[in-house]
Amino acid sequence: MPRHCRVSPFQGGEGAAAGACGWIEDKKGIANVTTMSSAEPTRRDFLYVATGAVAAFGAAATLVPLVAQMNPDASTIAAGVPVDVDLSPIAAGQVITVFWRSQPIFISHRTQKEIDEARAVDTNSLPDPATDQSRVKAGHDQWLVLIGICTHLGCIPIAHLGDYDGWRCPCHGSQYDSSGRVRRGPAPLNLPIPPYKFLSDSKIRIGETDTAQT
Amino acid sequence: MSGNSTYQPQGPVMQWLEKRLPIGALIHSSFIVYPTPRNLNYWWTFGGILSFMLGVQIITGIVLAMHYTPHVDLAFNSVEAIMRDVNYGWLLRYVHANGASMFFLAAYIHMFRGMYYGSYKEPREVLWILGVILLLLMIMTGFMGYVLVWGQMSFWAAKVITNLFSAIPVVGDSIVTWLWGGYAVGNPTLNRFYSLHYLLPFVIAGVVVLHIWALHVVGQNNPTGVEPKSEKDTVAFTPYATIKDGFMMVVFCILFAWFVFYIPAYLGHPDNYIMANPAQTPPEIVPEWYYLPFYAILRAIPNKLLGVMALGASILILAFLPWLDTSPVRSGRYRPLFRFFFWLFVVVCIGLGYLGSQQPAGWYVVFARLFTVYYFAFFLIILPLLGLVEKTEPLPKSISESILQGKTAGAKA
């Protein structure tokens, strides 16, 4: 392969062999930058490093909008604002489903029997230990608010089914009790509680907590 | 041109890969040690710029496609949602729209370079024809992309351009109905344009591979038009051409960024911010600037079928350039009479572009017809005759000689 020697305007000064080849093909196959074994980095080295650094920065900067555009856009975020639900039409023993951020939210108006059953359970025997009191708001024990997505693989459990006065998931048979805690089946965790707070005794806002964090 | 004997893969991974798929050797021989004429000027950087722009358009296009809805009731609003709601959507849309303009700007400069330096002459005829095919694909892609916005200009451009085919005798109307997928431009039209607009850039990429392959077989032309005769005439592609291309890409991107960030809507038409209304044609229909010269030629001919044929001929005639130009001298640098007619041709093209943007009335029509006559005369009369009668300047014996003897009197261009 031919050797292409081009006299650089930067060479020929002190310490550099005039007419030295700046470009050579050796057995490595990849053309070297310089044949001079100078101890000092040359201008060319500086230019290569500087160009490479700017190019790397440019590449990273280019990636930012390309990656960011896949995140939820302003309209999706705007549609995910907290939603208020009026609890007064919900009779005791009834479970309704509303949507918040495209997720099904179960609102269960529990009977006293369901509350007592949930509180009677030995929490150590649960696959995902949790007390019923920790899953409801103080003073509003009859209201159970859950994210209605099975913690196994994402199906929506069906209310008033199963052996625990709670829910059963049709996909793989997981069962949840009257506190939404997993009792049986492949699901590993209890049905999660969304952020919510009581605006009054008959109205809740899903998407905001009492400390105004979402 | 296969430099496979000189590439030695480094490290066990590359050695393993090279035995199975010698991509290292391919890149090495095509883009690293590839012998490049040492006298290439900056007009030769536009091929690299075009490849870069194709990448930009494909990437921004794919990303925009994640947010666009190709339905007549939803398309316009989905574009506005991209502009207003999608993170950096405004940037992606403006890069894609102005990128199309920059793509055509680079393509036209690239073509004018080829015409000036005789890069279409033997043995580069196939290379040139592949380029003409690329231009046609670009024109189709750009047209369909503009329709997707579904503004007033989008809709009426679709109407006008698809109606061109009705000029074809006998089968014209059937073809138009077939293109539309209905009795008029409508949802089926929009949907199929979306599909094809997504497809064609990848077809372009494939033809670009052929274009570069054809180039590497015969080697690049150079400003003297004299082929490299020895190693002294060439340098390795990397780093010389790589850096030169990279530098010009940066300069080009400065111009690109100027449009995107300061005047992003300058090259567009305000009427395309009005939703498409099939019942009302805007007072003036103009295509984007890069189609204006062809538009002027179409309107210059008073007959419908002949106008359409002239439009098609104005692009297709480029494919015959290698055979229309009879001069044995390749580069315009040594052809003073050719240079005069060439620059006149450039002025005529720009003039046709301006005339395409104006209403076809009065003096505009006269000049459009004059310029159209010159456009075709340049290819069909001037170039064939020039080669036979012009007095050319003496060629240098080699590329090295042309450099080492300095820029002698006469041609530096």
Please give a structural write-up.
- The complex is a heterodimer of chains A (214) and B (413).
- With 214 residues, chain A is of the alpha+beta class.
- Chain A has a domain at 76-206: Rieske [2Fe-2S] iron-sulphur domain (Rieske Iron-sulfur Protein), CATH 2.102.10.10.
- Helices cover 19% and strands 20% of the residues of chain A.
- Chain A contains three helices and ten strands.
- In chain A, β9 and β10 (203-206) form a beta hairpin.
- The longest helix of chain A has 26 residues, at 43-68.
- The radius of gyration of chain A is 33 Å and the shape is elongated.
- Helix content of chain B is 63%, strand content 1%.
- Chain B has helices at residues 11-20, 23-32, 46-65, 75-84, 89-117, 125-148, 152-163, 172-180, 187-218, 237-262, 292-300, 304-316, 321-324, 336-356, 363-389, 399-404, and strands at 35-37, 234-236.
- Chain B has a two-stranded antiparallel sheet.
- In chain B, α6 packs antiparallel against α9 (187-218) and α11 (292-300) crosses α14.
- The longest helix of chain B has 32 residues, at 187-218.
- Mean pLDDT of chain B is 94; it is low at 409-413.
- The interface between A and B is medium-sized, with 24 and 33 residues.
